[in-house]
């Protein structure tokens, strides 16, 4: 089954299997794939599934365009392994022949087998102080869209945080998080949209 793997700055944020004849991508919440970012048009592009694995991408006259290998595309057939660029989003197309029983569960099992850990963020400030939010998925997002959003990814060698979106840059232990993912250490303090959160690994 064909699939799309979306990432920002090397951090995977979404994994989608193309099962419908038409799968739309855009900023508007009624799309099949939603990227809440101003570089993405409300209806940006569409993926059309023909037969079992032939997939065509069509740009829906987006403002900032859809690119493959640095070239703006209008409509073309996707080849296995090609990477689509929309702003700072990267979407890899894979011609998978079958869908795993559960991608998230499989990924989590592999990661935990390599390095068994349990990670949580504990809110230190505001009305939610004391609240604990577990990091259980391969990629977990935190924050408020349009203000500040980060993605925390669980990789084989540990946990990484990356800034995804928003006008307010998050900080880690007082240092601004830049364009590249930063590895998290036990008891790091993440400040996100005015909220301070303690990262713990157990």
Descriptive notes:
By secondary structure, the chain is mostly beta strands. The protein folds into two domains: 3-94, Sandwich (Tumour Suppressor Smad4), CATH 2.60.200; 119-201, Tumour Suppressor Smad4 (Sandwich), CATH 2.60.200.20. It is 6% helix and 49% strand. The chain has one helix spanning 103-114, and strands spanning 2-8, 11-17, 22-26, 33-34, 45-50, 54-59, 67-68, 71-72, 75-77, 83-86, 89-95, 119-123, 132-135, 139-144, 148-155, 158-165, 171-172, 175-176, 182-183, 189-192, 195-201. Strands 2-1-11-10-7-8 form a six-stranded antiparallel sheet, with no helix packed on it. It is elongated. The protein starts with a strand and ends with a strand. The relative contact order is 0.15. Residues 23-73 form the FHA domain.
CATH architecture classification of the largest domain: Sandwich
Secondary-structure element pattern, one letter each: EEEEEEEEEEEHEEEEEEEEEE
Q: What's the Cα radius of gyration?
A: 18 Å
Number of strands: 21
CATH class category name of the largest domain = Mainly Beta
Tally of distinct domains: 2
Mean pLDDT: 83
Residue share in helices? under 10%
Q: Helices and strands: which structural class?
A: mainly beta
Look up the CATH topology of the largest domain.
Tumour Suppressor Smad4
Supply the number of helical segments. Answer: 1
How does the major sheet shape up?
A: 6 strands, antiparallel
**Amino-to-carboxy terminus distance:** 37 Å
Global morphology: elongated
- Stretches where pLDDT falls below 50 for ≥5 residues? 97-116
- The largest sheet has its strands arranged as 2-1-11-10-7-8
In what range is the share of β-strand residues?
Answer: over 45%
